[in-house]
Specification:
This is Spermidine/putrescine import ATP-binding protein PotA. The protein is an alpha+beta fold. The radius of gyration is 25 Å and the shape is globular.
Length: 380
Amino acid sequence: MKSLGSIRRSFAPWNDPEAKPYISFERVTKRFGDFTAVNDLSLDIYEREFFALLGASGCGKSTLLRMLAGFEEPTSGRILLEGQDLRGIPPYRRPVNMMFQSYALFPHMTVEANIAFGLKQDGMSKADIASRVAEMLKLVKLEQFAKRKPHQLSGGQRQRVALARSVAKRPKVLLLDEPLGALDKKLREETQFELMDLQQELGLTFVVVTHDQEEAMTMADRIAIMDKGQVMQVATPAEVYEAPSSRFVADFVGNVNMLEGTVAERSDNAATITGASGARIRVENAGEATEGSSVAFAIRPEKIKVSSKPPADGATNVMEGEIWDLAYLGDMTVYHVKLSDGQVVKASALNSARTMDDPLSWHDRAWISFAPDAGVVLTR
Ligand code: ATP
């Protein structure tokens, strides 16, 4: 496997004002009876992007994918591909293919016949089919399994057959609905990297639906976080994690402490936030939060330092509490620290040394501290 680092690092067409989106959802709404599954949603996806739709069950992500594939039509709004309105174009005429979670392989056909199926239907010549199938088998490393039937394969191999079949017709866009949902955790992790390699090698645009945030964070160039038929934020994995735009996104992705408070003072970008108990939090960048407004200060557990003694002078945002709970996870320890106002804050520390020089245990006094730029101020 090769590292995609250098390619990925420079790929960011969404930051280029000249770049045209490849796929555009323009104010798309989808209703089933009086239920609104997708609500006035707009979204741009760029060519060669690995794009993930992430959200809880029922938020409308599959419906969005199905409309792009042509299995459903929007109730209102438009979906454009390379500037062309897709309305009325049947699924088989769209340069889009969909891979389902169930894989939908034909059980009575061999691996190669499964891969060849769509090509045959398209009337491709025998010789061309044979060479395309061979190319696909090589791509997914299943050359020696060509003559097997799906039930003679492992789950991961079946997944690769489904993948080979869905890219055999060389679609421009591949839609994947929970592509790794049927695999166990370890195989999922390996397959995530295979999928990324394959997408890069083929130069395709991938749109993946998943409810697994780690999967989205690992694979995608950008993630759209969805809730109730709407997009809450579209950003790179790092931005979604480090700079969530709302309480919903902060809470949805990863672990977070959410400290509610009021902006007591603002000067330039910095601000002081007062919590319910009077605790004061100094932040370096308060964004658009205005003085007097109610906000949440969101901070990830790994950005909070815990110690058994008060931190040295000069430390900012120091609060005293008690170790309320503690979980040793091997690679790290998660502390739940109960502050004087009763709020419990989670802080995690990497166990990089085999012995801990500052052992903290249940009901010990503890101090937490964090830098003024360690969290974000959320107004929504
Ligand atoms: P999951 O992860 O569970 O698949 P999802 O985010 O993909 O969820 P969708 O399948 O897009 O969700 O469904 C969104 C909502 O629309 C759900 O509440 C679902 O019940 C509803 N829905 C989807 N298809 C139909 C349909 N054909 N008729 C009626 N309601 C539908």
